[in-house]
């Protein structure tokens, strides 16, 4: 069977796409010629065994690796519709981080109030009007399904919220910046099953507005919430497909071994 071009598998418009993308931590060649299409307003899951490069790929999308000397990108990550290469040195990483937000494994609210956490990005951008901030904070908290729980305690410290609430607050903080893409790095691994279910529901809702890329160790979660799945191994993208097809009829033996738990 001839190799299929991954982008042709996607039926929606592309929001982004990596092309012959490589990443190096100094001498460590962590990502190798990755061609990953990211469908607009869909959920794309990155799965694969520990150390295969999922987080490295995710973090490349908002130029997190720029913060460390010795790291090197090669190839392209095209962002559409502008069609810019977001890892080009000519592109400002700060601008990219405003357009592409990230939610981490462990909730990481700032040591500030609930209100300030959500308003932070807007304030950094110079928005000072209290009425605009209030409106945007409410909208983002509603979008993150947290408004009803916190509307009477917006001036409480964010640390007083439960773990699941803190993670929804971090999602609200990401939403408040009106991002085009949200990157989720194992967002439920520190949460109990109920909080996990509410984050999964939330992801299904916010994908109506925002493109989502998510790293997960949990294959059931990938199968439940994603539209497309990319299976990675040793820095390579082994197989990309529609989630309903990849989990039922994987084309590659490595993918099949991984999803059936026979990996070793
Ligand atoms: N800061 C770093 N410096 C050097 N090598 C790194 C660094 N971070 C990750 N690596 C290496 O890059 C490779 C990919 O790591 P990465 O964290 O992206 O994998 P992962 O699939 O997300 O793993 P996990 O599921 O365990 O989080 C691994 O070999 C890892 O050891």
From TrEMBL:
- Cite a GO CC annotation: membrane
Classification via SUPFAM superfamilies: P-loop containing nucleoside triphosphate hydrolases (SSF52540)
**PROSITE patterns annotated for this entry?**
ABC_TRANSPORTER_1, ABC_TRANSPORTER_2
Q: Which CDD domains match?
A: ABC_PstB_phosphate_transporter (cd03260)
* A Gene Ontology BP annotation from the UniProt entry: phosphate ion transmembrane transport
| Entry superkingdom | Bacteria
Q: Keywords on this record?
A: ATP-binding, Nucleotide-binding, Phosphate transport, Transport
Q: Would the keyword Transcription regulation be found if you checked this record's keyword annotation?
A: no
Q: InterPro entries, alphabetically?
A: AAA+_ATPase, ABC_transporter-like_ATP-bd, ABC_transporter-like_CS, P-loop_NTPase, PstB-like
The record's GO molecular-function terms, alphabetically, read: ATP binding; ATP hydrolysis activity; phosphate transmembrane transporter activity
Residue spans crossing the bilayer: none
Looking at the record, the residues that make up the ABC transporter domain are 16-259
User: Which Gene3D superfamilies does the UniProt record give?
Assistant: P-loop containing nucleotide triphosphate hydrolases
What PANTHER family has UniProt attached to this entry?
A: ABC TRANSPORTER I FAMILY MEMBER 17
What is the recorded name of this protein? Phosphate ABC transporter, ATP-binding protein
Lineage of source species: Bacteria, Pseudomonadati, Pseudomonadota, Hydrogenophilia, Hydrogenophilales
């Amino acid at each position: 069977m001839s190799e299929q071009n991954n982008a042709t598998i996607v039926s929606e418009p592309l929001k982004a796409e990596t092309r012959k993308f490589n990443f190096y931590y100094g001498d460590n060649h962590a990502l190798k010629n990755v061609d990953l299409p990211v469908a607009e307003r869909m959920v794309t899951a990155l799965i694969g065994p520990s150390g295969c490069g999922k987080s490295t790929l995710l973090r490349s999308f908002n130029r997190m690796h720029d913060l460390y000397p010795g790291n090197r990108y090669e190839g392209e990550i095209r962002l559409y519709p502008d069609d810019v290469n977001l890892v080009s040195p000519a592109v400002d990483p700060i601008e990219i981080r405003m357009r592409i937000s990230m939610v981490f494994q462990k909730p990481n609210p700032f040591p500030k109030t609930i209100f300030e956490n959500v308003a932070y990005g807007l304030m950094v951008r110079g928005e000072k009007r209290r009425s605009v901030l209030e409106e945007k904070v409410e909208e983002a908290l509603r979008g993150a399904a947290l408004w009803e729980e916190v509307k009477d305690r917006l001036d409480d410290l964010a640390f007083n919220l439960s773990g699941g609430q803190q993670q929804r607050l971090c999602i609200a903080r990401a939403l408040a910046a009106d991002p085009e893409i949200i990157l989720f790095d194992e967002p439920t691994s520190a949460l109990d099953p109920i909080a996990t279910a509410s984050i999964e529901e939330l992801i299904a809702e916010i994908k109506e507005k925002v493109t989502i890329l998510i790293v997960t160790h949990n294959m059931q979660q990938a199968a439940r919430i994603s539209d497309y799945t990319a299976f990675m191994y040793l820095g390579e993208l082994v197989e990309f497909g529609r989630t309903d097809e990849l989990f039922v009829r994987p084309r590659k033996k490595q993918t099949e071994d991984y999803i059936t738990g026979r990996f070793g």
